[in-house]
Amino acid sequence: MCQHIVGTEDHVKQIRFLNVVRDNLSISKNQISITSGSFREGLEMRGSDLDIMIVVRNIEVYDVKPRLNQHTSYLSMDTDDVKPGFTQLRLEENCSKKILFERSVQIADKYYLSSTLWKHGNLPIGEMFRIHGPCISDKDELSDIVESLHCKTWVSSAKKKYLMSFSGMVAYNLLGVALRLLGDTESARQSFLQSAKINPDASRNFAVNRLLLMS
């Protein structure tokens, strides 16, 4: 049944490979194009659109100030007075003044990137495309294109969350091993279950395989 919907395994692998080749060939000095969504996974499903993420290479976002490149513009993350998971991007170093200033708003003596101005600045002239959430879509909704900026490091809040999750996973694993040695198999299984909820990746969390052996 699955083969009739998405094709054979070899067909899916070929589509994935072609997507990787196309993305690599499209890399330029200023941007990288990345095919995303179901099509990236080799799944050509009826009704699905083509998702493409374009990463701008000459503009970088940072949480901790890096060594600066004179040919790169930099935006710093300002997470004060914003919702969790969001940030304001403050213009710090600008090597492409016209573009970034046109797409920024001034607050006091600082400039912040405007997502609205950014999307409108990338919108092609004419009626063939429209803004659809964070993306630019064609009128037939066959493709979604989003232009994005890259932060090369984990932001501090994400690091804290990751470390907390990792610590919790390790704690449950140690508890599970100890309970198993004491002969309390059911309590050990519950500990491994909690660990697997934190990180269900079997290659990074041995609790997943332990659960399979205990089932």
What does this structure look like?
This protein is α+β, with helices and mostly antiparallel strands and 215 residues long. It folds into two domains: 2-152, no CATH class; 157-214. 41% of the residues lie in helices and 26% in strands. The protein contains eight helices and nine strands. Strands 1, 2, 3, 4, 7, 8 and 9 form a seven-stranded mixed sheet that branches. A hairpin with a 4-residue loop joins strand 8 and strand 9 (143-151). Helix 6 packs antiparallel against helix 7 (185-198) and helix 7 packs antiparallel against helix 8 (206-214). It is extended, with a radius of gyration of 23 Å. The relative contact order is 0.09. TPR repeats lie at residues 169-202. Keywords: TPR repeat. InterPro entries: TPR_rpt.
